[in-house]
Write a structure and sequence with these properties.
Blueprint: H1 10-14, H2 16-19, H3 26-41, H4 57-71, H5 88-97
Helix pairs in contact: 3-5, 4-5
């Protein structure tokens, strides 16, 4: 089980101790991806993503996982209890960890 706050603001994330928040981080993303892939390898077919409000943190992880399943051509059905509003920071870290997104370099051409 992971515990992290629903923060996206870069200033708050970079000063997490000052603001007394626990932001989602690369280690948490790697732990989450590892767990989900192990479950998939064990033929688990039902994944439920939930957080305190069930709107942004869980939907960010669920949407990134859905993109991974699509890439792998694995059929799935997405069901939402509430309208999702994914935390962009969490989703981006998940997509990076799942290999579905490249980290942008300041040297890359636009």
């Amino acid at each position: 089980m992971l515990f992290f706050d629903d923060v996206e603001d870069r200033e708050i994330i970079s000063s997490s101790e000052k603001f007394k928040v626990v932001p989602f981080n690369r280690e948490m993303a790697e732990e989450t991806v590892s767990f989900l892939k192990r479950a998939l390898n064990c033929k688990i077919s039902l994944f439920i993503f939930s957080c305190m409000a069930g709107i942004s943190r869980s939907s960010a992880i669920a949407e990134a996982w859905a993109e991974f399943l699509k890439k792998e051509n694995i059929d799935f059905t997405a069901l939402y209890e509430r309208s999702p509003l994914p935390n962009v920071y969490v989703k981006r870290l998940m997509l990076l960890t799942l290999g579905l997104m490249q980290r942008k370099s300041c040297l890359q051409k636009k």
